[in-house]
Amino acid sequence: MNLTGYGRPVRVKKEESVAPTPYAPNRPLVPSPELTGEALRLLVKVDRWVTLRELPENFPRVLNRLAVVWGRPSEADRCFEELLMNSRANRQGFPLAVVSELTALRHFYVTRAFPKHTDPWEQMHLR
Description:
Shape: globular
Strand content: under 5%
Structural class: mainly alpha
Largest sheet: 2 strands, antiparallel
């Protein structure tokens, strides 16, 4: 219920208030959102080591999502895992160029951006 400046309630029709679900079969195709500021900063940061062309152009939503979790290693690992591994059979998957860019970005992430420091004594237990 919305109150106007005159104190009278304005009722909204049900058709207007119901948003289409993302999985609606007759949903019109909506272009992908633009890159956010965080995603643009991430592109500048990794440009020296990883060349990203297809990902920002064709899948900006994915790059925006990675930029949000970039500084949190546990969430970023989970995000890379979800993007690179097929957990749902009804998905088409990324084109090969995008998969190679995502793989290169993940490699940069785990080797240069946030390398995992291992304890040498802990490694002795694993042998």
